[in-house]
Amino acid sequence: MRVGELAARTGVSVRALRYYEEQNLLSAERSPSGQRHYPESAVDRVRLIQQLYAAGLSSKTIVELMPCVIDGRATPALLKRLAAEREHVDRRITDLMHARDRLDSVITAAGNNMVTGASCRQETTA
User: Fold this and answer.
1) What residue ranges are annotated as transmembrane (predicted)?
2) Which of 14, 17, 65, 92 has an alpha carbon within 20 to 30 A of 4's alpha carbon?
């Protein structure tokens, strides 16, 4: 498939796909005229890359981890790295849950003290 079709099927911009290639996250065959052609498996690979980015991993880290993630091949060092990345994701999830809980408490408190037309800021007069 061509780059535009891959972009449409994955919801990722053509520019992002080109960046993935530059970072060695994705590869394409080139036609004699220089057009990129991707295998069907590129759809799943792009979705995986997006998930790993969403988890907070850098492109450099993703490149290093990709053999283990895609092919199941892993050295002890790579498994250790994957475990560390997972712990990092767990910490982010915990932090986000705490932030959500704090927002819930602010919303509840503000709802209990709601005054029509008032803002959360107190006006001061000099």
Assistant:
1) none
2) 65
Rounded Cα–Cα distance for residues 87 and 14 (Å): 32
Residues in the chain: 126
Q: What are the φ and ψ backbone dihedral angles of 30, each rounded to 5 degrees?
A: -110, 135
Taking CA 18 as the corner, what is the angle to CA 15 and CA 22, rounded to the nearest 5 degrees? 135
Based on the number of CB atoms within 10 Å of its own CB, is 25 exposed (0-12), middle (13-18) or buried (19 or more)? buried
CATH fold group of domain 3-112: Multidrug-efflux Transporter Regulator; Chain: A; Domain 2 (1.10.1660)
Is the sign of the CA dihedral 40, 12, 18, 68 positive or negative? negative
| Per-residue confidence band for 123, with pLDDT thresholds at 50, 70 and 90 | low
Would you kindly state where each structural domain of the chain is located, as residue ranges? 3-112
pLDDT at 101: 96
pLDDT digits (tens, 9 = 90+) for 44-100: 999 999 998 988 888 888 888 887 777 777 778 888 888 888 898 899 999 999 999
